[in-house]
Amino acid sequence: MSSAKREEVSSHLRYIRLELRDMHQMLLKEGLLPDPGEAREVHAQLDALHQLLSEKNKKKVKNQFESF
User: Fold this and answer.
1) Rounded CA separation 6/23 (Å)
2) pLDDT tens for residues 6-48?
3) What residues contact residue 43 under an 8 Å CB cut-off, 6+ apart?
4) What angle, 0 to 180 degrees and rounded to 10, lies between the N-to-C axes of helices 36-65 and 3-30?
5) How far is CA 44 from CA 16, 17, 28, 49, in A?
């Protein structure tokens, strides 16, 4: 994985981790469930991360089978 991709993945993971930590603290301290908008935002970040990682796998698989 290139260093730019690695940094992008790392950035996504840091953001997701902070958001989930905030949601967890809210749940523990106040007994409140997170706002659905916040949960959707974290889900969107996870989707973006998955897409970023999946692109590399698709390219690798495509290149492997191009010769057939």
Assistant:
1) 26
2) 888 888 888 888 888 988 898 889 888 878 898 898 888 888 8
3) none
4) 150
5) 10, 13, 24, 9
The DSSP-derived string for 2-31 is -HHHHHHHHHHHHHHHHHHHHHHHHHHHH-
Distance CA 54, CA 48 (A): 10
**CA 26 – CA 61 distance, rounded (Å):** 42
Which residue type is seen at 51? Answer: Q
Q: Which tokens in the block code for residue 44?
A: 């969107």
User: Which tokens go with 6?
Assistant: 């690695």
